[in-house]
Amino acid sequence: MIEQPIEVTNRLGLHARAASKLVRVLSGFKAQAWLSNGNREINAKSIMGVMLLAAAQGTTLQLRLEGEDEAAALAAVIDLFERRFDEEGE
Length: 90
Fold this sequence. Notes:
It is found in: Cytoplasm. The chain is 34% helix and 26% strand.
C-alpha cells in the first residue's frame, strides 16, 4: 500500500474535466485507489466521488493506492497533477 499527499495546483481545482482525467488515468491500473480530504474518503476511480470532494486549488488530498501496479499508478497521478491536468493554456 502507498499513501501520498498530493496538492491540487490547477487553477480550477478538481472540476468535472479534471476529475474525468484523473478517473481515466486511474482506470488504466489494477490497483485500488482512494482519495481523502479530511474525514471523507472516496473511490478515486469514481467521477462522482472525486467531484464530491470539491477540491479547490491549494487543497491537499491524501491518495492511497493498493495493488500490484500501485507504484505505476502513483507515478501517473503525480504526473497528471504536476501537468495541472493540461489546463494551463486554457
